[in-house]
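note to self: dont lose this again. the chain is below, predicted strucutre after it. 362 aa total, dont forget to put it in the shared folder this time
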Amino acid sequence: MSESTRTDRFDTMMKYVDYLDEQKKLIPDLRSKYIGVTMPFPQTSQLRNKVLESIEKLKACDQDVCIAVYFYHDGNWYNPVEYKSIIFIGNDYPHLKRIIDFMAGEEIKLSINDTCILYKERLADSTRILQGNHSKMTSLNDLFSRVEIQLDMLEVGMGYHYENKQVNEDIIQFTHPEREEDEEGKELGYQLFTRSLDCFTRKVLTKGVLSGYPVVDSRIEIIDASCTMTFHREYYYMDGAHGSLKKAMKKADWQLCEPVMEITLICSKQYFERNSLFREVEDLQVSEERDERRVAFTAKISSVMDYLEAFYHNSEDVSDIHMRINRYVPLEDTALVVDRFAVIYSVSKWKDNLNEEDERQE
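---
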């Protein structure tokens, strides 16, 4: 292989590596987020672009904001996605208020009454060993990839942990007789395939498995992996890593869960006595301080949603409130989740894709 060919091959691989690094930067940190506010998806392209441009300004000022959507799709990917709502996900209830105020300045009306829960997807079992195989056969190249992972659910707040315990570097193979001895291609392929496993593990966890809600507080260990193709093709390593990881994850037993919140507040004696919520919560602890009560308890976020406005803005009765996620519990059968959920990584790219879809339909 000539020196110029080697240089071109290395430069091409590095472009894909840079792409993976950029994709990892776009993946949001959702471990402590539990709440969002929704608005209907704009029905005209003009209003939609105005909203998305305002969202881009919002994210430029507040990097903690995460944007997601509710949508419907019939499963046929030749048909367009029907978007139902845009979701503004914040760190907590006061953060949502700041988001609403910013968007009001952009003449986009959001309502705190349209608050929604950020559900999470969790394993029914605490640990699973999962295997996934992915193949693609075309007239130009064939791809066969395989991955074996150990997936563990961690305690709330621990975030995401990834480790590649696959120690065999001879996991890239070419089936074409003239490429079997392409050691340089195998070495470059190994670097790109393992980087792809790291990036797409994070993406698969963010996209979830059941309805598109993220998997957080989890650890994935790559136990074993391999990738075989006819010729060295950079994008095949990425496709192989992504496809095999998704198929491995789908083999697990998943549950859609909601957060149980740990809440502490100081309220007036009268507010505490007349509020029926305090008679229904778990682990209630109360201490008296003159005419006030220091209250601590745990409750599912769905059971306290209607009380958040009073908790945070009834200054006469409530002060010094703190909330954090305590754990997750499976949704009850009565909780109806119809639309799918998806995190939007790049608002500008999403806007371009929507405009391109409009052009195709005209």
